[in-house]
Every structure is written in structure tokens, then in C-alpha cells.
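User: Could you check the structure of this?
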Amino acid sequence: MRFLFNIFRRKLTTFWYTKHAERLLFYEAVFTSAYVRFTLSFLEFKKVMNWLGRKNSHETVGFRDADFSMVRSVKTAVFRCNSYTFWKTECYTQALTAKILLRRRNISSVLTIGFMKDEAGNYKGHAWLTCGDIIVTGNLPNLSKFHVNASFK
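Assistant: Sure, the predicted C-alpha cells are below.
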């Protein structure tokens, strides 16, 4: 029991000493992730397509150097959100959450959905979000093995 208390105290202390802007972004990521998860559970995919953006032909998006720190902050906030929420935040939920957070800050990004076949012959799907050369969410070591099905700007 004492072990769990020490872990909780350490995480609370770390969270308390983070910058105010980072805490606010974390809160925004948690609430946006909850909203995305809830709507993905109850709405059909056609309704969610509006969040994804415009379907395009795998084009890349550049961003200004001033936006680099914001992209990194959103990446960190979504990662922390994934660690601390009790609901399942798989790659698709993370990518949509980060896309919404970046869109609110007028930073364009590309959400990509791909599939691959594993050794057992089963198909696996994956979603990731990129902003320029930065992979914001969904970074996997074998990301190049996925065949891109669609990408949304």
C-alpha cells in the first residue's frame, strides 16, 4: 500500500511542477480524447469523416518553425493522456485527438490509415498523424510495412 502511495505522490508532484500551459494542454487532451472515444463508440464512420479532413493523395504538410514547440507539446499531452486515462486510447483515438488539438491551433497535419498482414496472415490496421517530418502519434518501428489506405489533410 505504501508503494502505491509513493507512486501517486511522485506523479502528483511531477504534475504539479509542470508548466501551467502544459497542464492546460493535458486537460484539453483528456477531454478531447474522451469526446473522441465516446463519439467513435456511438457514431457511424461517415459522421467521423468530417474530423479527418480532406482526403488527399498522401501529400506531406510542412509547418512553420514557430509551431515546432506546439507540435511537440501536443505530442507530449496526447502521450500523457494515453498513460493516465482509464478508457482505451488506441492509435486511431490518439491520432484524431492530436489532429483536433493541432487544428484548433491552426497547424495542419496529415492523418494516415494503413494496413499490413502479419506472419499469421491476419490484417492489422494502424493510424498515425504526421506534421511535416514529425510523427505526432502512432510511431511504430515497422511503420514502413503498412500499406497506406487513406490519408487526410
